Amino acid sequence: MSGDLHCHTRLSNGSMGIEEIIALAKSRGVETIAITDHDCLAGTVRAKIIGERNGIKVIVGVELSSIDKESGEVVHILCYLPEFPDRLEGLCHQNSLARKRASQYMMLKAAQRYPVSAELMKRCATGSTNLYKQHIMHALMECGVADSFYGKIYEELFSPESENNIIVKPAFQGTAEVIDAIHQANGIAVLAHPALIGNTAEIEKYVEMGIDGIEVWHPSADENTAAELLQFAKKKGLLATGGSAFHGLYNKKALSLGDYVTPKTQLQELMSFKSRQKRLLKKLQAEADAAK
User: How far apart are CA 189 and CA 202, in angstroms?
Assistant: First the structure.
């Protein structure tokens, strides 16, 4: 049994609702999924209930945004199986407010450059907890300004290399603080899509911050890169996960839920990770007591 552990719904920047995601998983023969909306845990309880009705195991998850204080880059940390998810609500709220402020500026900049109203961009974000660049592009397509989500205009507005980009980085919490918050919630912290980071030296930094795993199988990683990441994970004693980063209509390329998954062995390791940690702590405590 493998699992797609990276799926987004309409609550963040996906185009499909929870029911539709679970129906798609069932039709695709994917038995285990994780809903990992950005900075949002709102759909997890409902997803688990609907999943159970349809024979789909739903793992509680969330993709938390952070800022690497050294590089200034946005880093995403996937959190799985938090035992105390309420402890993450404050962080999710802070990140959501930061994203709202940034998206307001980007929305205004887009409206100044193209004949698109703020009201239309907000309407395209209906059902989401925030406004994302996909919603801005959706509005531009509605107006006939853009002919695709990720074409020339997307590159102009949202590519860091573009001199005319309208990017405003949200003031997210630091990466180390986010990893610590996940552990405070007794969750598992996994570095999302490390293939996009580009080198293991940078990934090492997050290992030192305390990540428990890395996302090996992902659309950003070709076969060779995934093999290298898996070897790195084994060397560092990290969990290895995988998922399609499914966004429905907002996917960057044609792919479906389950195209990238966490293999059976690695899924079992994830599910038993906390039990193994507890056994190790008990063993270390027993050894420490015996040495006294």
Answer: 17
Residue 144 corresponds to which tokens in the numbers above?
């006939």
Using a cut of 0.90, tell me whether the model's pTM lies above it.
Answer: yes
What is each CA distance from 15 to 153, 212, 231, 242, in whole angstroms? 20, 30, 34, 21
40-56 pLDDT per residue, tens: 999 999 999 999 999 99
Taking the C-alpha atoms of residue 226 and residue 242, their distance in angstroms, rounded to an integer, is: 10
Type of residue at 79: C
Interhelix angle for 18-28 vs 44-53, to 10°?
Answer: 40
Say whether 19 sits in a helix, a strand or coil: helix
Domain 3-88+187-291 has CATH 3.20.20.140: yes
What does the alpha-carbon distance between residue 125 and residue 161 come to, in Å, rounded to a whole number?
Answer: 26
Provide φ and ψ at 192, rounded to 5°: -75, 145
Buried b (16+ CB within 10 A) or exposed e, 205-224: bbbebebbbbbbbbbbbeee
Token look-up 């961009």 returns 121
CA 255 to chain centre: 17
Contact 241, 270 (CB under 8 A): yes
Spell 249-281 as b/e; 16+ CB within 10 A means b. Answer: ebbeeeebbbbbbbbeebbebbbebbeeeeeee
